[in-house]
Write a structure and sequence with these properties.
about 150 residues, 6 helices, mainly alpha, single chain, rod-shaped
Length: about 150
């Protein structure tokens, strides 16, 4: 009889441990699912850079400024696009500004006539990067990607 009671106690302990493991695994999965859902559906969630850039019309004023300043004939003239370009940059999150400027140059290159010289493309990227300083926004410089310099 003692042997049966001991076996029953061990079996009960084993079943209780198994039930606890299942409960914890289920709770962990449930908590993870809730966390993922909250991250995706949370109001006020930061917009992606692409959404922000699109909302700022691909920095159209910055595109105009870059085009204006990268053409030799108007380099020293004041630009009518600088203030509105700076406003567009300020409307982007800090981490989206470099990709926004890169996208603006790409858009400008797409719209421009075919066959731009490599030197002119480089100048456009240099003008774009100087905008960060001119507009006094952070970051002051972009990390070099394949298109920057």
């Amino acid at each position: 009889m003692l042997h049966i009671a001991s076996a029953m106690a061990k079996l009960t302990l084993l079943l209780a441990t198994f039930a606890l493991v299942l409960f914890l695994a289920n709770a962990s999965i449930y908590r993870t699912t809730i966390t993922v859902d909250n991250d995706q559906n949370r109001p006020g969630r930061e917009r992606s850079c692409e959404q922000q850039i699109r909302q700022q019309n691909y920095l159209k004023h910055c595109q105009r400024y870059i085009e204006e300043k990268s053409s030799r004939r108007s380099y020293n003239r004041p630009s009518r696009y600088l203030d509105s370009c700076c406003e567009q940059l300020q409307n982007l999150d800090r981490q989206c500004r470099c990709s926004g400027l890169e996208r603006a140059v790409q858009k400008q290159l797409e719209e421009a006539e075919v066959g731009r010289e490599e030197e002119e493309k480089q100048e456009m990227y240099q003008v774009a990067e100087k905008l960060l300083e001119k507009c006094e926004v952070e970051p002051r410089r972009c990390q070099q990607s394949r298109n920057w310099f």
